[in-house]
Amino acid sequence: MKIVRFVLDGxxxxxxxxxxxxxxxxxxxxxxxxxxxxxxGQQGGGAGAAGQQVGTAGLAPVPVGIFDAKKIFISNAGxxxxxxxxxFSGWTDRGYNQFYTLMQNWGRYEIVAEPQQADLVLELxxxxxxxxxxxxxxxxxxxxxxxxxxVIFDGKTHYVLWVLTESIQVAALQKTHDRNFDDALTALxxxxxxxxxxGAAGTP
Length: 204
Description:
The chain has helices at 20-31, 64-68, 94-106, 174-201, and strands at residues 2-8, 11-17, 41-42, 71-79, 110-111, 120-127, 147-154, 160-167. With 204 residues, the chain is of the alpha/beta class.
């Protein structure tokens, strides 16, 4: 039930209606004669428009396992077909090899040889999603650019803790394709470092 207050011919009136649509229709009709001065509210509840306001939610925390982990296993989930040796030089394990080196140079985690030994499993994959040649994300079109996708699994429970992605920007020359490939991998490693730093700080 809804309550609507309005002015009709100089008198303050109260109407009890059975739905929001009815309340809006009555308010529109009465407003033409006397002007609606009240608001629609829940009978006896007092929630009204305030109940429709979206509060500012806090940021969710980073899983503590990402910071607490000491050992990682890097899994090569491969690459979609048609990406090597053009537009990218090398072979399908190029991204895996380069990311492995980036993790070694970082030194934050010990890289182990078997996933059973790891606190985290990092699954790296190079994908080329299908999409229009001129994707419009406003209309929901997917990004047609190749991208690296890093899935972070908990080593014990095998649940996904986090997913990071970095797109490889389009280029005209082979050497530019290769540079963009390297830049995307470096950005992905930077994303992971930032994620671990958030966990270390205890803030989302």
